[in-house]
Amino acid sequence: MHDSEFDDIDRLFARLDRAPVPEDLTSRVLSSTVARTNATHAVLAWPWMIACVVALGVLTMAGYELGVSLAASDGLDLLTAIFGDVGLLTIAPGDVLAAVGEVVPWTLVAAAGVSAGLLILAAGNVVSRTPATLRNLA
Amino acid sequence: MNARAFDDPGQRTALSIEGQHIVAARRGEPGAFEALVRRHQGPLYNFCLRMLSQSEDAADVAQETFVQLYSHLGRLDEREAIAPWLFRVARNRCIDVIRRRRTVPLTVDDDSAPGFDPADDEPLPDELAERADLQRLLARAIETLPPAYAEVVSLRYAGDRSFAEIAQILDCDEGAARVRFHRAKALLRRQLRAQIA
Known about the structure:
The complex is a heterodimer of chains A (138) and B (197).
Chain A: H1 8-13, H2 25-31, H3 34-72, H4 75-84, H5 87-91, H6 93-103, H7 106-129, H8 132-137
Chain B: H1 17-26, H2 32-52, H3 55-71, H4 83-101, H5 134-143, H6 147-158, H7 163-170, H8 174-196
Helix pairs in contact in B: 1-2, 2-3, 2-4, 2-6, 3-4, 4-7, 5-8, 6-8, 7-8
């Protein structure tokens, strides 16, 4: 009641009891809105979680194979030499790049790069699709 | 209520608490939508209850209204109060329920309600306010009103809405809302006098 001009009817109806809201109304509303949306988002997060695990597995495998490949060739020695004397890059950059190009298994590097990118994308989607309540708990 | 214009985080401080809840609910922040529901459920439920006279139907309509609010969060203007929008939706849903129950005219022409004498300003007997069954009398008086009058009385007395808000909800100007309310009060006076006679 915000306006003036009260009369006997207004005074009488000002005594009209406000019925208590049903106890379950809020929970009914929330279960058919927020909870449902959260559940939908949680369901949508599952494929990204799987993608996350797969990407992590591929990245691990690619990293391991890359290390084995470099250890089997002269790659590790070459990389150690380059990191030990960075000046080589300025003295003979062409020779350094050519040598690196020969010893590095580019297929494995590409696989590791792609899986790392997929891992970042999938992890971002998992976080964004996880209900805010769960995010805050974490 | 459609222009969504909140992109600047600095604007958030200028928003009302309700506006901040709307923005937070859109982002899925926990508790924000629940705060909106708790803020409005009392007046909205009581309005529905007076319109429909049945607690189950009133709770259903209130629930449906809040579900519709949730799906419309993205389209609401957080700088405006949502009460008029909520009550408008609830009113339309109440009318649908009433239509399903019976066939009566749900609108009135404020200038020419047939068989109706608005000049009924005699005060009610004082003892009416002392009646033990006052709540039942008041509820019964609202129930017997034609729906178009019951809604304006329910918005005013059960929904605690101002005339400006009632005008928004009923999609009329404030003067028309006041006229309809005045006519409804004359009918209420007549109903109450008849009940205690």
